[in-house]
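Please produce the structure of this protein holding nickel (II) ion.
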Amino acid sequence: MIYITRRERFNAAHRLFRAEYSDDENLKIFGKCSNPNWHGHNYELFITVKGEINPETGFLINLKTLSKIIREEIIEKIDHKNINIEVDFMKNRMASTENLTISIWKQLEKEISGLGVTLHCVKIYESENNFVEYFG
Ligand code: NI
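Below is the modeled complex.
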């Protein structure tokens, strides 16, 4: 079994808040990410897949194909968008990085298994110091 990871980047706006809470309560719970006028992050997305090496090519997977799937299923839908209101696979979910990793997993799992490999991990850096990993 061998693992390979493709990185893609996107930037997007979001706000973490609950409508029933006051702005002060939201600030207390969600910090700066509750800013009522939105804000953005430069996200880094790491998609790791696993499988067996093709003895003819020496490759696990064609990374161009993997990149194309990530771009079509994720990046084109989220880059320069507002996660709370414009991204279909995040509809009705709190726009946290935790939820985003799970939604991206669900969005990619089937497409990636069609390539003959298995999705192993979705990792998202929201900032240099904070990242979330999901293993399904
Ligand atoms: Ni934020």
